[in-house]
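Fill-in record for CubicO group peptidase (Beta-lactamase class C family).
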Amino acid sequence: MAIQGTHEPEFVEVLAEFERNFAERGEVGASVTVTVDGRTVVDLWGGTADPSTGAEWTEQTLVDVWSCTKGATALCAHILADRGELDLHSPVARYWPEFGQNGKDAILVHQLLDHQAGLAGVREQVPPGAFFDWERMVGILERAEPLWQPGTRHGYHGLLFGFLVGEVVRRVSGRPLAEFFADEVAGPLDLEFWLSLPAAQERRVAPTIPADLTAPGVLPPSLFTTAMADPTSIPGLMVINTGGYMVPDSFNSRAAHAATIGAVGAITNARGLAGMYRPLALGGSFADVRLVSPRQVAVMGQVTSACSVDAAVLVPTRFASGFLKTGDNSHLPANDKEGVLLAEEAFGHSGMGGALGFADPKAKLSFGYSMNQQGPGIGVNERGQSLVDAVYRALGYHQTHEGGTWFRG
Protein backbone atom coordinates (compact mmCIF):
# COMPACT_ATOMS: atom_id res chain seq x y z
CA MET A 1 0.00 0.00 0.00
CA ALA A 2 1.48 3.34 -1.06
CA ILE A 3 1.42 5.84 1.78
CA GLN A 4 1.49 9.53 0.96
CA GLY A 5 2.50 12.52 3.07
CA THR A 6 5.33 13.48 5.37
CA HIS A 7 6.79 12.73 8.77
CA GLU A 8 9.77 13.97 10.75
CA PRO A 9 12.53 11.36 11.26
CA GLU A 10 11.90 10.79 14.96
CA PHE A 11 8.32 9.77 14.14
CA VAL A 12 9.22 7.07 11.64
CA GLU A 13 7.53 4.47 13.88
CA VAL A 14 4.20 6.20 13.26
CA LEU A 15 4.69 5.61 9.54
CA ALA A 16 5.62 1.97 10.22
CA GLU A 17 2.46 1.39 12.29
CA PHE A 18 0.32 3.19 9.70
CA GLU A 19 1.69 0.83 7.04
CA ARG A 20 1.05 -2.17 9.32
CA ASN A 21 -2.57 -1.07 9.70
CA PHE A 22 -3.06 -1.62 5.96
CA ALA A 23 -0.93 -4.75 5.72
CA GLU A 24 -2.09 -6.59 8.84
CA ARG A 25 -5.04 -4.89 10.55
CA GLY A 26 -7.66 -4.45 7.86
CA GLU A 27 -7.33 -0.72 7.18
CA VAL A 28 -9.05 0.38 3.96
CA GLY A 29 -8.51 4.15 3.81
CA ALA A 30 -7.17 6.45 6.52
CA SER A 31 -5.21 9.54 7.53
CA VAL A 32 -3.17 10.48 10.60
CA THR A 33 -1.82 13.89 11.61
CA VAL A 34 0.28 14.86 14.64
CA THR A 35 1.46 18.27 15.82
CA VAL A 36 3.99 18.96 18.57
CA ASP A 37 4.54 22.46 19.93
CA GLY A 38 2.37 23.74 17.09
CA ARG A 39 4.48 22.15 14.35
CA THR A 40 3.11 19.38 12.11
CA VAL A 41 5.41 16.37 12.58
CA VAL A 42 3.25 13.69 10.94
CA ASP A 43 0.77 14.08 8.07
CA LEU A 44 0.04 10.78 6.31
CA TRP A 45 -2.77 9.28 4.26
CA GLY A 46 -3.37 6.28 2.05
CA GLY A 47 -5.62 3.44 0.93
CA THR A 48 -9.00 3.40 -0.75
CA ALA A 49 -11.69 5.98 -0.10
CA ASP A 50 -14.53 4.09 -1.77
CA PRO A 51 -14.12 0.36 -2.49
CA SER A 52 -17.21 0.40 -4.70
CA THR A 53 -15.48 2.70 -7.19
CA GLY A 54 -11.83 2.08 -6.36
CA ALA A 55 -11.33 5.79 -5.62
CA GLU A 56 -8.08 6.43 -3.76
CA TRP A 57 -7.87 8.13 -0.37
CA THR A 58 -6.07 11.38 -1.17
CA GLU A 59 -4.90 14.41 0.75
CA GLN A 60 -8.34 15.92 0.07
CA THR A 61 -10.47 13.00 1.31
CA LEU A 62 -13.00 13.69 4.06
CA VAL A 63 -14.95 11.25 6.23
CA ASP A 64 -17.52 11.17 9.01
CA VAL A 65 -15.54 11.01 12.27
CA TRP A 66 -18.54 9.91 14.34
CA SER A 67 -18.26 10.73 18.03
CA CYS A 68 -15.11 12.77 17.52
CA THR A 69 -17.85 15.30 16.69
CA LYS A 70 -18.60 15.58 20.40
CA GLY A 71 -15.22 17.20 20.96
CA ALA A 72 -16.12 19.96 18.50
CA THR A 73 -19.53 20.49 20.10
CA ALA A 74 -18.09 20.52 23.62
CA LEU A 75 -15.47 23.05 22.51
CA CYS A 76 -18.24 25.42 21.42
CA ALA A 77 -19.76 25.28 24.89
CA HIS A 78 -16.38 25.90 26.51
CA ILE A 79 -15.74 28.92 24.30
CA LEU A 80 -18.98 30.45 25.59
CA ALA A 81 -18.13 29.48 29.17
CA ASP A 82 -14.70 31.05 28.87
CA ARG A 83 -16.31 34.30 27.70
CA GLY A 84 -18.62 34.34 30.71
CA GLU A 85 -21.71 33.86 28.55
CA LEU A 86 -22.47 30.32 29.73
CA ASP A 87 -22.30 28.99 33.29
CA LEU A 88 -21.68 25.25 33.18
CA HIS A 89 -23.10 24.91 36.69
CA SER A 90 -26.41 26.65 35.95
CA PRO A 91 -29.64 24.84 35.02
CA VAL A 92 -30.08 24.19 31.32
CA ALA A 93 -33.55 25.75 31.62
CA ARG A 94 -31.94 29.11 32.41
CA TYR A 95 -30.87 29.26 28.76
CA TRP A 96 -33.44 26.91 27.22
CA PRO A 97 -36.67 27.33 29.24
CA GLU A 98 -38.70 24.74 27.31
CA PHE A 99 -36.19 22.08 28.30
CA GLY A 100 -37.29 22.19 31.93
CA GLN A 101 -40.34 19.93 31.40
CA ASN A 102 -40.98 16.48 32.83
CA GLY A 103 -38.39 16.41 35.60
CA LYS A 104 -35.59 18.21 33.73
CA ASP A 105 -35.81 21.62 35.42
CA ALA A 106 -32.83 20.99 37.71
CA ILE A 107 -30.48 19.46 35.10
CA LEU A 108 -27.27 21.48 34.95
CA VAL A 109 -25.35 22.31 31.79
CA HIS A 110 -22.32 20.33 32.94
CA GLN A 111 -24.55 17.26 33.38
CA LEU A 112 -25.27 17.36 29.64
CA LEU A 113 -21.53 17.50 28.96
CA ASP A 114 -20.83 14.79 31.55
CA HIS A 115 -23.46 12.32 30.26
CA GLN A 116 -25.30 12.47 33.60
CA ALA A 117 -28.61 14.01 32.48
CA GLY A 118 -30.50 10.75 31.93
CA LEU A 119 -30.97 11.47 28.23
CA ALA A 120 -28.85 8.75 26.66
CA GLY A 121 -32.03 7.95 24.72
CA VAL A 122 -35.71 8.84 24.71
CA ARG A 123 -38.83 6.71 25.06
CA GLU A 124 -40.87 8.70 22.52
CA GLN A 125 -40.59 7.06 19.11
CA VAL A 126 -38.16 9.07 16.98
CA PRO A 127 -39.71 9.45 13.49
CA PRO A 128 -37.79 8.46 10.36
CA GLY A 129 -35.36 11.18 9.33
CA ALA A 130 -35.81 13.19 12.53
CA PHE A 131 -32.05 13.44 13.06
CA PHE A 132 -31.96 15.64 9.95
CA ASP A 133 -34.48 18.07 11.48
CA TRP A 134 -32.98 20.10 14.33
CA GLU A 135 -36.24 21.67 15.50
CA ARG A 136 -38.00 18.32 15.58
CA MET A 137 -35.26 16.80 17.74
CA VAL A 138 -35.32 19.81 20.06
CA GLY A 139 -39.05 19.29 20.56
CA ILE A 140 -38.57 15.59 21.33
CA LEU A 141 -35.91 16.43 23.92
CA GLU A 142 -38.07 19.13 25.49
CA ARG A 143 -40.86 16.56 26.03
CA ALA A 144 -38.56 13.77 27.18
CA GLU A 145 -38.41 12.36 30.68
CA PRO A 146 -34.95 11.38 31.96
CA LEU A 147 -34.17 7.66 31.92
CA TRP A 148 -32.74 8.01 35.44
CA GLN A 149 -32.64 10.72 38.08
CA PRO A 150 -30.23 13.29 36.64
CA GLY A 151 -26.89 13.40 38.39
CA THR A 152 -27.20 9.95 39.98
CA ARG A 153 -25.83 7.88 37.09
CA HIS A 154 -23.48 8.21 34.18
CA GLY A 155 -24.64 6.94 30.77
CA TYR A 156 -23.13 7.93 27.44
CA HIS A 157 -25.48 10.25 25.52
CA GLY A 158 -24.15 8.77 22.30
CA LEU A 159 -26.56 10.10 19.65
CA LEU A 160 -28.34 12.95 21.49
CA PHE A 161 -25.36 14.81 23.04
CA GLY A 162 -25.10 17.15 20.07
CA PHE A 163 -28.74 18.20 20.05
CA LEU A 164 -28.60 18.80 23.81
CA VAL A 165 -25.36 20.75 24.05
CA GLY A 166 -25.82 22.27 20.61
CA GLU A 167 -29.19 23.77 21.50
CA VAL A 168 -27.62 25.39 24.58
CA VAL A 169 -24.95 26.86 22.30
CA ARG A 170 -27.65 28.15 19.96
CA ARG A 171 -29.73 29.70 22.77
CA VAL A 172 -26.71 31.45 24.31
CA SER A 173 -24.93 32.59 21.14
CA GLY A 174 -27.94 33.19 18.89
CA ARG A 175 -26.28 31.11 16.18
CA PRO A 176 -26.89 27.49 15.12
CA LEU A 177 -24.22 25.08 16.32
CA ALA A 178 -22.69 24.49 12.86
CA GLU A 179 -22.51 28.22 12.18
CA PHE A 180 -20.96 28.94 15.58
CA PHE A 181 -18.30 26.28 15.04
CA ALA A 182 -17.54 27.58 11.54
CA ASP A 183 -17.29 31.19 12.75
CA GLU A 184 -15.34 30.60 15.95
CA VAL A 185 -13.20 27.51 15.27
CA ALA A 186 -12.95 26.13 11.74
CA GLY A 187 -12.86 29.50 9.98
CA PRO A 188 -10.23 31.23 12.13
CA LEU A 189 -8.03 28.11 12.14
CA ASP A 190 -8.54 27.49 8.40
CA LEU A 191 -9.75 23.94 9.01
CA GLU A 192 -11.61 21.68 6.60
CA PHE A 193 -14.00 20.60 9.34
CA TRP A 194 -17.77 20.91 9.05
CA LEU A 195 -20.71 20.22 11.36
CA SER A 196 -22.93 20.77 8.31
CA LEU A 197 -21.21 19.89 5.06
CA PRO A 198 -21.69 22.22 2.06
CA ALA A 199 -22.94 20.46 -1.06
CA ALA A 200 -19.80 21.46 -2.97
CA GLN A 201 -17.68 19.29 -0.64
CA GLU A 202 -19.83 16.13 -0.85
CA ARG A 203 -17.80 14.55 -3.65
CA ARG A 204 -14.76 14.39 -1.33
CA VAL A 205 -16.45 12.25 1.34
CA ALA A 206 -15.40 8.62 1.78
CA PRO A 207 -18.42 6.55 2.83
CA THR A 208 -18.26 4.89 6.23
CA ILE A 209 -17.84 1.11 6.00
CA PRO A 210 -19.52 -0.40 9.08
CA ALA A 211 -17.99 -3.38 10.83
CA ASP A 212 -19.62 -6.71 10.05
CA LEU A 213 -20.73 -7.78 13.52
CA THR A 214 -21.97 -11.13 12.16
CA ALA A 215 -18.62 -12.17 10.68
CA PRO A 216 -16.96 -15.32 12.08
CA GLY A 217 -14.81 -14.53 15.09
CA VAL A 218 -16.32 -11.07 15.65
CA LEU A 219 -17.71 -10.51 19.15
CA PRO A 220 -20.10 -7.54 19.23
CA PRO A 221 -19.73 -5.26 22.26
CA SER A 222 -22.21 -5.75 25.09
CA LEU A 223 -23.81 -2.44 24.12
CA PHE A 224 -25.02 -3.89 20.82
CA THR A 225 -26.00 -7.35 22.04
CA THR A 226 -28.02 -5.80 24.88
CA ALA A 227 -29.66 -3.30 22.53
CA MET A 228 -30.74 -6.00 20.09
CA ALA A 229 -32.01 -8.26 22.85
CA ASP A 230 -34.01 -5.47 24.52
CA PRO A 231 -34.74 -2.35 22.45
CA THR A 232 -36.42 -0.79 25.52
CA SER A 233 -33.18 -0.95 27.54
CA ILE A 234 -30.98 2.13 27.86
CA PRO A 235 -28.53 0.79 25.23
CA GLY A 236 -31.49 -0.11 23.02
CA LEU A 237 -33.06 3.32 23.25
CA MET A 238 -29.69 4.90 22.48
CA VAL A 239 -28.77 2.99 19.30
CA ILE A 240 -32.11 1.76 17.93
CA ASN A 241 -34.55 4.62 18.57
CA THR A 242 -32.82 6.99 16.13
CA GLY A 243 -35.36 7.34 13.33
CA GLY A 244 -33.34 4.98 11.18
CA TYR A 245 -30.11 6.97 11.37
CA MET A 246 -27.90 4.01 12.30
CA VAL A 247 -28.06 2.26 8.92
CA PRO A 248 -25.54 2.92 6.12
CA ASP A 249 -28.07 4.28 3.61
CA SER A 250 -28.93 6.94 6.20
CA PHE A 251 -25.63 7.95 7.80
CA ASN A 252 -23.82 7.88 4.44
CA SER A 253 -26.46 10.02 2.74
CA ARG A 254 -26.19 13.59 1.54
CA ALA A 255 -29.05 14.45 3.94
CA ALA A 256 -26.98 13.21 6.90
CA HIS A 257 -23.90 15.14 5.86
CA ALA A 258 -25.88 18.34 5.29
CA ALA A 259 -27.66 18.09 8.65
CA THR A 260 -26.16 19.21 11.95
CA ILE A 261 -25.82 16.11 14.12
CA GLY A 262 -23.51 17.40 16.81
CA ALA A 263 -22.86 14.03 18.42
CA VAL A 264 -21.77 11.97 15.44
CA GLY A 265 -22.00 13.87 12.13
CA ALA A 266 -18.82 15.94 11.67
CA ILE A 267 -17.07 15.65 8.32
CA THR A 268 -13.30 16.20 8.35
CA ASN A 269 -10.08 14.17 8.34
CA ALA A 270 -7.03 13.67 10.56
CA ARG A 271 -5.65 17.08 9.65
CA GLY A 272 -8.91 18.72 10.75
CA LEU A 273 -8.99 16.84 14.06
CA ALA A 274 -5.37 17.59 14.91
CA GLY A 275 -5.88 21.18 13.80
CA MET A 276 -8.86 21.70 16.10
CA TYR A 277 -6.95 20.35 19.10
CA ARG A 278 -3.68 22.16 18.30
CA PRO A 279 -4.61 25.42 20.12
CA LEU A 280 -5.84 23.40 23.10
CA ALA A 281 -2.43 21.68 23.30
CA LEU A 282 -0.84 25.13 23.52
CA GLY A 283 -2.88 26.78 26.26
CA GLY A 284 -5.84 27.68 24.05
CA SER A 285 -4.16 29.69 21.27
CA PHE A 286 -2.31 29.09 18.02
CA ALA A 287 -1.15 31.44 15.24
CA ASP A 288 -2.89 34.47 16.75
CA VAL A 289 -6.18 32.55 17.10
CA ARG A 290 -7.38 32.23 20.67
CA LEU A 291 -10.13 29.69 21.26
CA VAL A 292 -10.13 29.71 25.06
CA SER A 293 -7.91 30.82 27.95
CA PRO A 294 -5.36 28.55 29.65
CA ARG A 295 -7.73 28.47 32.62
CA GLN A 296 -10.49 26.98 30.47
CA VAL A 297 -8.09 24.44 28.96
CA ALA A 298 -7.44 23.23 32.51
CA VAL A 299 -11.20 22.87 33.04
CA MET A 300 -11.52 20.93 29.80
CA GLY A 301 -8.94 18.38 30.91
CA GLN A 302 -10.21 17.80 34.45
CA VAL A 303 -12.16 14.58 35.06
CA THR A 304 -15.72 15.45 36.04
CA SER A 305 -17.49 12.12 35.60
CA ALA A 306 -16.31 8.52 35.82
CA CYS A 307 -17.97 5.19 36.40
CA SER A 308 -17.13 1.50 36.54
CA VAL A 309 -20.17 0.56 34.40
CA ASP A 310 -21.62 3.20 32.08
CA ALA A 311 -25.42 2.81 31.96
CA ALA A 312 -25.46 3.08 28.16
CA VAL A 313 -22.26 1.49 26.84
CA LEU A 314 -21.85 -0.98 29.75
CA VAL A 315 -18.09 -0.47 30.20
CA PRO A 316 -16.04 1.93 32.37
CA THR A 317 -15.85 5.50 31.03
CA ARG A 318 -14.22 8.76 32.16
CA PHE A 319 -15.13 12.23 30.93
CA ALA A 320 -14.01 15.83 31.39
CA SER A 321 -16.88 18.21 30.58
CA GLY A 322 -17.63 16.68 27.19
CA PHE A 323 -14.20 15.21 26.44
CA LEU A 324 -13.07 11.61 26.77
CA LYS A 325 -10.18 10.80 29.11
CA THR A 326 -7.75 7.89 29.06
CA GLY A 327 -9.30 4.61 30.12
CA ASP A 328 -7.79 1.13 30.33
CA ASN A 329 -10.44 -1.51 29.56
CA SER A 330 -7.93 -4.21 28.63
CA HIS A 331 -9.01 -6.34 31.62
CA LEU A 332 -12.52 -6.74 30.17
CA PRO A 333 -13.69 -9.55 27.84
CA ALA A 334 -12.49 -9.25 24.25
CA ASN A 335 -15.74 -7.74 22.98
CA ASP A 336 -15.61 -4.87 25.51
CA LYS A 337 -11.90 -4.21 25.97
CA GLU A 338 -11.58 -1.21 23.64
CA GLY A 339 -10.86 2.01 25.50
CA VAL A 340 -8.33 4.71 24.72
CA LEU A 341 -4.85 4.86 26.25
CA LEU A 342 -3.43 8.37 26.50
CA ALA A 343 -1.47 10.36 29.05
CA GLU A 344 -3.56 11.52 32.00
CA GLU A 345 -3.25 15.16 30.92
CA ALA A 346 -4.77 14.43 27.48
CA PHE A 347 -8.42 14.98 26.53
CA GLY A 348 -10.35 14.56 23.30
CA HIS A 349 -12.81 12.10 21.82
CA SER A 350 -12.93 8.85 19.91
CA GLY A 351 -15.41 7.96 17.19
CA MET A 352 -17.31 4.71 16.74
CA GLY A 353 -15.15 2.20 14.92
CA GLY A 354 -11.83 3.79 15.85
CA ALA A 355 -11.40 7.48 14.89
CA LEU A 356 -9.68 9.74 17.43
CA GLY A 357 -8.71 13.34 18.08
CA PHE A 358 -7.11 14.75 21.22
CA ALA A 359 -4.89 17.37 22.81
CA ASP A 360 -2.19 16.74 25.40
CA PRO A 361 -1.23 20.13 26.89
CA LYS A 362 1.69 18.75 28.91
CA ALA A 363 3.29 17.26 25.78
CA LYS A 364 2.07 20.18 23.60
CA LEU A 365 0.70 17.45 21.37
CA SER A 366 -2.37 17.25 19.14
CA PHE A 367 -3.43 14.14 17.26
CA GLY A 368 -5.98 13.17 14.64
CA TYR A 369 -6.80 9.82 13.05
CA SER A 370 -9.69 9.19 10.65
CA MET A 371 -10.66 6.15 8.60
CA ASN A 372 -13.57 4.68 6.66
CA GLN A 373 -13.45 1.02 7.79
CA GLN A 374 -14.96 0.83 11.26
CA GLY A 375 -13.85 -1.72 13.82
CA PRO A 376 -16.50 -3.66 15.76
CA GLY A 377 -16.24 -1.60 18.96
CA ILE A 378 -17.09 1.94 19.98
CA GLY A 379 -13.63 2.79 21.31
CA VAL A 380 -10.17 3.01 19.78
CA ASN A 381 -9.05 -0.29 18.29
CA GLU A 382 -5.56 -1.58 17.52
CA ARG A 383 -5.19 0.56 14.41
CA GLY A 384 -5.61 3.91 16.13
CA GLN A 385 -4.01 2.88 19.41
CA SER A 386 -0.85 1.69 17.63
CA LEU A 387 -0.44 5.18 16.15
CA VAL A 388 -0.99 6.86 19.52
CA ASP A 389 1.51 4.51 21.15
CA ALA A 390 4.13 5.24 18.50
CA VAL A 391 3.69 8.99 18.99
CA TYR A 392 4.12 8.77 22.75
CA ARG A 393 7.17 6.53 22.42
CA ALA A 394 8.73 9.03 20.02
CA LEU A 395 8.23 11.72 22.68
CA GLY A 396 10.01 9.63 25.31
CA TYR A 397 6.89 8.48 27.17
CA HIS A 398 6.50 5.12 28.91
CA GLN A 399 3.54 3.10 30.18
CA THR A 400 2.89 2.18 33.79
CA HIS A 401 2.30 -1.37 32.52
CA GLU A 402 1.29 -2.95 29.24
CA GLY A 403 -2.00 -1.33 28.37
CA GLY A 404 -1.56 1.39 31.00
CA THR A 405 -1.52 5.19 30.99
CA TRP A 406 1.33 6.92 29.19
CA PHE A 407 3.67 9.10 31.27
CA ARG A 408 7.00 10.89 30.88
CA GLY A 409 9.75 10.01 33.33
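KEY FINDING: The mean pLDDT is 97.
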